[in-house]
Amino acid sequence: MSESFDRLVELMAKLRAPDGCPWDRKQTHESLKPYLIEEAYEVLETIDQQDPRKLREELGDLFLQVLFHAQIGAEMGTFTIAEVLEQLADKLVRRHPHVFDTQEQPQGEDRLSPDQVYSNWEQIKRDERARAGQTESALHGVPKTLPALLRAFQVQARASRVGFDWPHTREGTERVMVKIEEEVRELREAVADNTDDKADRIESEFGDLFFAMVNLARFVKVNPEEALRGSTNRFVARFQLMEAAAARAGRALDDMTLDELDSLWNDAKRVLAASTTDSDASR
Predict the structure, then answer these.
(1) Domain pair 2-94 / 148-222, same fold
(2) What is the pLDDT of residue 274?
């Protein structure tokens, strides 16, 4: 593996060399940002497809972005790939004392649960910042560039860790549901409003409703980003089946009545439900 890694580092350096690739030589940390995000999402899509061969390829493309940034860092004299790896290794050891510190390794029934491990990880991070003299918000570390649903989820989770949350009980979940109903009523009122700031109010109330829905996702242990992505993927699959069925009938979707479209939609749902059942049965 070391030989493979060294070869990749050398290839990346060659691509950035004066006699290397003009496109690669032109790139900067800033110009590569879209590609980093794109490659990460392609990895997510491949995980959804459950295709190990494709996942291997996409992970390679994502790792290329790490090598790219490290090579630029080396050229600028700011950091090297070796320093990236060393800092990561040190962090993993430091934040897993229950694994690497023999004096703190609980045994048997005293072994930490995943939730306890996560809590300790966050406390270690806070201690590190305190030793560095950094006084930061409890919400520090949630990137503004995250997709909105995922960022809302993470912000709420951080606030919950310092006690700003309803209890995660049936009663707490019910209070979240009541809040959602309240936000729906306020959105209805905004839509019915006739004042000049109607559009701004609708947008604001829409955002509040989304935020409340994300809160419910936390309480029922659902990742809202994954949930919406899954719903969108199902819609795309069903819609494409509708298009295929219409094409076989020599029709165009925009020439069909709403009842005809609804019938095609229901047929597509049945086809996909059957294929999912067959797939599960074959495992």
Answers:
(1) yes
(2) 87
| Predicted TM-score (pTM) above 0.85 | no
Cα–Cα distance between 143 and 257 in angstroms, integer? 45
pLDDT score, position 247: 96
What confidence score (pLDDT) does residue 194 get?
83
CATH topology for 2-94 is: Helix Hairpins (1.10.287)
What's the 3-state SS for the chain?
Answer: CHHHHHHHHHHHHHHHCCCCCHHHHHCCCCCCHHHHHHHHHHHHHHHHHCCHHHHHHHHHHHHHHHHHHHHHHHHHCCCCHHHHHHHHHHHHHHCCHHHHCHHHCCCHHHCCCHHHHHHHHHHHHHHHHHHCCCCCCCCCCCCCCCCHHHHHHHHHHHHHHCCCCCCCCHHHHHHHHHHHHHHHHHHHHHHHCCCCCHHHHHHHHHHHHHHHHHHHHHHCCCCHHHHHHHHHHHHHHHHHHHHHHHHHCCCCHHHCCHHHHHHHHHHHHHHHHHHHHHHHHCC
pLDDT of residue 101: 82
Q: Which residues contact 72 (CB under 8 A, 6 or more apart)?
A: 16, 27, 28, 29
148-222, which class in CATH? mainly alpha
Q: How far apart are CA 164 and CA 179, in angstroms?
A: 15
What is the distance in angstroms between the CA of the first residue and the CA of the last residue of the chain? 33
How many residues in total does the chain contain?
A: 283
Mean pLDDT per block of 10 residues along the chain (283 residues) reads 92 97 97 94 92 96 97 97 96 90 64 80 78 75 88 93 91 96 97 89 96 96 92 95 96 95 96 76 52
How crowded is residue 109: how many other Cβ atoms within 10 Å of its Cβ? 5
Tokens representing 3? 């030989």
Q: Would you kindly state where each structural domain of the chain is located, as residue ranges? A: 2-94, 148-222, 225-281
